[in-house]
Amino acid sequence: MAETCRQVLKDCGVSPERLSLKWASASEGPRYVQMVTEYVRHIKTLGSLGSAEGEAGQDALTRLDAAGAASAVSKIRTAYGNMAKKFHEANNPDAYTPEAMETAVREKVMPGFREERLGQEVLMRLGAEGIAGSLLCGLLGAKEDEFEKVMTGLVKKGKVKAEGEIFKPA
Amino acid sequence: MSQTNEMSNDIKGFDPKILGFFCHWCCYAAADSAGVARYQYPPNIRTIRVMCTGRLDFRFVLEAFRCGVDGVFTGG
Predict the structure, then answer these.
(1) Which of A14, A162, B3, B50 is the most buried (most CB within 10 A)?
(2) DSSP strand E in A24-170: where?
(3) What is the mean pLDDT of the segment spanning B19-46?
(4) A24 contacts on B by Cβ (under 8 Å)
(5) N- to C-terminal Cα distance for chain A?
């Protein structure tokens, strides 16, 4: 869960350090206080969400929005579930190393997630009058082949129509 | 949202908005005991209690960031 979140945040241009996962047992009040104090101090040095990411801040917020929408798509949920199931079926507690989880998420979940997120972002960025393909690709910060794949997918699904260079909402 | 972010940054000593997901049996109890023992700690965390940290899903965290929090603190 945390690893997926971190990689998605990174993909959106947000610092993955904004998510923290820590442990304190019921009797560890002082430890909890120390953890919270440190974490709040760390977030203060990072700055607020959006503005801390510099000029790309607004883009990062749009991307987060798109990622949120993408995370509800059943295709992504299935990929995530299957990855978790593989770990479970291996029936080996030692398999849950940070490295193994990082690789599994990167290979099994992220490609589909990124594609879906780009698709959602396209739908968000298309105004009523449409937008030129090259401009849109630049806004997304996507590679050309990636962009092509996402756009053909959206056109095929009938969510976007292409009029020459201009893409319009269907 | 960007406007509120800019505003909060303008105020001297930026006051982050942090969402906390706390396990009912562990971190939530720890927070409770810290409160009873009158420890001082920053008030920036808004808490959501879950019955187990395993209940969390990456959708929750993404949704939180989507709503504009500056950080998500998960306490198991």
Answers:
(1) A14
(2) 131-132, 160-163, 166-169
(3) 93
(4) 26-27, 30, 75-76
(5) 35
CA B70 to chain A, closest CA, distance in angstroms equals 5
- Judge whether B63 and A68 are in contact, CB under 8 Å: yes
CA A83 from chain centre, in angstroms, equals 17
Q: Mutation test of the interface with chain B: which of A5, A6, A10, choosing the one with the most B Cβ atoms within 10 A?
A: A5
pTM for the model: 0.83
Q: Cα-Cα-Cα-Cα dihedral of A38, A47, B74, A120, to 10°? A: -160
E-assigned strands of chain A?
A: 19-22, 131-132, 160-163, 166-169
- Residue A70 and residue A120 in contact, taking contact as beta carbons nearer than 8 Å: yes
- Residue A2 confidence (pLDDT): 86
Cβ–Cβ contact A30 with B under 8 A:
yes
**B65 and A1 in contact by Cβ < 8 A?**
no
Q: Grade residue B37 by pLDDT with cuts at 50, 70 and 90.
A: very high
DSSP codes, A8-32: HHHHHT--GGGEEEE---TT-HHHH
